[in-house]
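Morning run. Coffee first, then this:
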Amino acid sequence: MRSDFASLLEQAGFDASERGFWQRVIMIDNRVLLPATRLEEGDLMKLHGFNALILDRKGVPTHFCKCRPPTKDWIRQTEFCTRMSMEPALRHVLPPARAVGSTDLHMTISEYVPGRAFEPRVPRMRTGKLDAAIQEILLLMETIALRGLIVDPELFAGQTRIDLAAEAAWAFDTIPPSLFAPGQAAVVRNAISAAGRVRRVLQHGDLWPRNILRYDGHWWLLDFDTFGRIQVPLYDVFHMVRSCWVLRQGRGVTRWTLSRARLQKPSPSWVQDLRSSSTMETGQTTLAWARDRQGLTNVEAIGALVFYLIDTVARMFRRQHPMQYVEPYLSDLGILAECLEAGETFADAFGNAG
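And here it is:
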């Protein structure tokens, strides 16, 4: 395995035979050993592999590597992201990257950005300042989405609009009735159907504060493994706003580090707080702003909200995440179904558009 990894590093321009080189390579997030016994296409987030950090002789990080099996999806995505990182308009947004591969491995290697992570700042920021920062980041994502279509015009496959009901069908089939009651599923199906077809917009797919840095006066966005796979508008907006809301509740977004006692406590509901401006600390201004920028009606925005939650739950369930991490999203989905059945319009969250 080390010889294969060394070969990739040599392709990327490193001298892996240099004395002391391997003492400056730190393996992190080692999932399953490579090479993989079988290739798994279709879900990049489920791939086996590992990440590595490369340090210079002074111990300063210089490059970040992601090594995965050479599936067609992963190769296509890394090559696409490499081209994106070379776009002049994105030179202060995406770190320069390149892709190298072999028979058993395929790696993307990007320059390390040493900025301050956005995640620890979120709980301490004033509401107005946080909303302004989120909106700046979302505007950057709009720029990235537009450049993505220039780099790869085939991403929309000739279709500029997306049918939410058709796009979400797989998620309804994936979540078992024991987790999401058929009655509630019917309610959210109707909400998605009511939204109909909406304009396609390329989404990051995992845009939350841990994937954002502040460096050299700019926001830098990271982890574009699934960029463009999701094309439902507002998906990134919901994930950013919900993630920031959870962090400001004093909880980790995925709750990986919480004690057993805290995990047993009932979680506050983001969807419940969306219903009223008197309880929602942050996010409603941004949601209304984003809905307006996308030119969506409230019915379409609610359909996009339903899509975000059911898509997230289905992806986590398919990847076999422990249920304590799925449950907060599943709970929000169930509460959303109850709100919609009761006639809730979420006007406080999305403004007064029709």
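The chain has two domains: 2-112, 117-350. Good start to the day.
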